[in-house]
Amino acid sequence: METKQRQARRAALVELLEVVRELVDELEPQSGAGQSGRRSERVRLGASLGTDLGLDSLARAELVGRLEERFGVTLPERTLAEAERPSDLLRAVAQAGEGVGAEAFDLGYQGGQGGQGGQVAAREAVEGAATLIEVLDLYAEREPDRRHILYLDRGPGEGAETELTAGALRRRAQGAAAALQAMGLDPGQAVGLMLPSGLDYFVAFAGVLMAGGVPVPLYPPMRPSQLEDHLGRQAKILDNARVHILVTFPEVKPLARLLRARVPDLERVVTAAELDGAPAAFVRTPIDADDTAFLQYTSGSTGVPKGVVLSHRNLLSNLRSMGEILHIGEGDVVVSWLPLYHDMGLIGAWMGSLYFGVPLVLMSPLAFLSKPVRWLRAIHRYRGSLSAAPNFAYELCLAKVSPEEAEGLDLSSWRVALNGAEPVSPRSVVGFSERFAGHGLRPEAMMPVYGLAESSLAVSFTPPDELPKIDLVDRETFQGRGVAAPASPGSPNALSFVCCGRPIPRHEVRFVDEDGREVGEREQGRLQFRGPSATAGYFRNPEATAALVRGEWLDSGDLGYMAEGEIYLTGRTKDLIIHAGRNIYPQEIEDAVGDLDGVRRGCVAAFAARDEVSGPERLVVMAETRLDAADGAGRAELCRRIEVTTMDLVGVGPDRVVLVPPHSVPKTSSGKLRRGTARRMVERGYVSGPGRAVWWQVVRMAAAGVLPSLRSLRRRLGGVVYAMWFWGLLGLTAPPLWLAVWALPFRGLRRGVVRGFSRLLARLTGTGIRVEGLEHLKDRPGGPWVITANHASYLDGFVLAAVLPSTAAYVVKSELRKSPVSHVFLSRIGCVFVERFDPARGQQESEKAVEALRRGDHLVIFPEGTLQRAPGLQPFRMGAFVVAARTGTPVVPVVVRGTRSKLRGGSWFPRPGDLEVVVRLPVEPEGEGWRAAVRLRDRVREEMLARVGEPDLLG
Known about the structure:
The longest helix has 38 residues, at 706-743. Mean pLDDT is 84; it is low at 31-37 and 99-120. Among the domains are: 2-120, ACP-like (Non-ribosomal Peptide Synthetase Peptidyl Carrier Protein, Chain A); 576-688, ANL, C-terminal domain (GMP Synthetase, Chain A, domain 3); 718-948, Glycerol-3-phosphate (1)-acyltransferase (3-Layer(aba) Sandwich). It starts with a helix and ends in a 7-residue tail after the last helix. By secondary structure, it is an alpha/beta fold. The strands form nine sheets. It has a seven-stranded mixed β-sheet with strand order 28-34-33-29-32-30-31, with helices on both faces. A five-stranded mixed β-sheet has the order 11-12-13-14-17.
């Protein structure tokens, strides 16, 4: 018996969702926008009828009617006003019906915990998510109190520990989104995030996405001596990304303001605290899977940084593929110190933990670098199972973690230790595993991987529970012919390369020669990849994109070979040194020289530099040393040992050895060597010495921005003068207009005065209005028109009043009745007041519009219902089209262009500019019912999209 009742309840659930889905499908435009079916994929018991499914009051009334017909029930009138989700409708149907059972709604969304067909786990639900924000929404609704991030101020047990739940992240991110929108951020605009690791970073990042913006991670300045160089590089990124708002922290904000003079689009520099706790509600912007999630600027290890465009689809594809390999489950814990401006930290650690619903224990990169054992202690204390780091971090632990510090460590929970983001050293893989085997670390836990920003992070992974593989190849054969011929173990003439695994699911890798032909097994070539995670290219950089994209494949710029289906990386194409007919790989020289006494390990760069006199390239080794410049004998001896080491290793000695002070070898934000920059330093006559004083760097940066600042000031002053003139005219002329409308006896006369005033205001403010297609509004024998116009600015009403016939009656929101000034004025010119937010009154509001048509007025409606700052046509409400279909009145689409630029929504700063009004051909209704109204809406929307010149924001 219980089984039959449960089956009946489940059948009712499925049937109700099917009714909702049918209606939502009907409301999706079937032409023009190409978006059909997107909203119907969001239909679930917990979805919002308004926000998620886009049902206005008339659509909800239609839905209630269909449910009554399908289930044979009569729903209470309050259902239309109170139902916010399909789960509410299911409850109402269950209570009204005799055969469904009032407990049917228990299967659905209750307190944010349920889902379609029962208590569906959030981890299963995210498989259908299309964007990162959808993922956050799912966890915030279903598991709002589950720990998402635990941030350690220093290390485990050393300082404050701050928790952030999924629910708190969404709540704070919505506040940040509201603040950004209040600051003028439009959808699609870039926001720079120059923040240190911390909870504010995640709030700002998610807030930018919710506001419809594009986050651009930037690394904050680390060393005062490199301040000018750092901000100079960031200025190039900000300019390329067209960043409008820069979010930073208080210590850097005064310096970051200097960037405004060098970045024309940069309007505001704010701190994360200024985004937190905004009182205003944000306007949710539709986000699609193919929209840009963020711009990941490459580290610049081989040249000028480039902005990799990564969509939500790219990122979620990569995360899902990684999850299939790593088998991430509920018991996993991610531990990370990786910087959040780097893809391994941002995508791998944070987005991975968000997507799979596992906690992230995070500490600052500086906390790790100053005391590497903190990383291991965090894994021990919080039973971390997943943690990733570049190769240098494993080397640092080997060098800096003493036996005393390691005492008591238990690393047995660490099941996956990913090693990537830079060349993986065989010595590091073996040494780290052996060093910490006595602390519970399994050798199979070490997982060499390969990835890059252009693939959203991961390209290939070593399968879990497999020992790392190290391939020994014959040096002479490889350097001479590019063939990785196996060498015998223990051979003194062997090169070793670490296996980086196999391509992740649904992704492919191949190696090609210089002509683009695929090479054979164990032959070195350029690594190319393809798959759903691959970027579409670099932002505003067509030359770099052309070099990246090779048909269906993307060129990584890395060299390597394939052996038995597994990938071995040998170096970067641009870093390969061809000297005396031999291919020399700089990493090998750098590792060996770094082991010498007197050389700072990890601070050696080997590269080829051109000789300005003789022409051919020379082999140069640049190494950092603490030896004083006055110690000529010691430095000469160190140079000799570097030469001997290089000769013994690769068969040729360096043509030049350059010894430099600490922190002089250029590196990227993620610690990679910038060999190209080092080469340019040598070719331009590098002279070692202390960096410039901070105050002098600030002076130089300020001086560089003087002229751009003056030009910007001139533009702003001109804008202020125009705005003062505009509002001054309006303030002087508005009171006489109001009095005239109040006093004149005839409605037609009042409307004529408003029309004349609108034209005069346009003329006095230098605003030209070009009108096209006005002949389409000529009187017709059958009566008036329904006129629909896009709504981009508060100026739209004035513009339409200036060009449309005086018999036009405007539909306005009922909130304008609250002010006696606006109520009297609008009532006297015959405006129709409608309630926007009460679904139960939708039918009554329709009657008001019908009455206006019957008295002979053209009915002017803004079907978007509201305006926003964002360019684009918003979803249409059904009122205008239901009325038109019901009365058989043709709809005339009108497009207003230019008002958004002249006066944006939420802004009171008008700008000079001309306007355009385009009147399209009337669209006749085909029938009287709901489906006829939907078809009419779609045809009108298509007509408006053809001329509006803005994107379709239907989401």
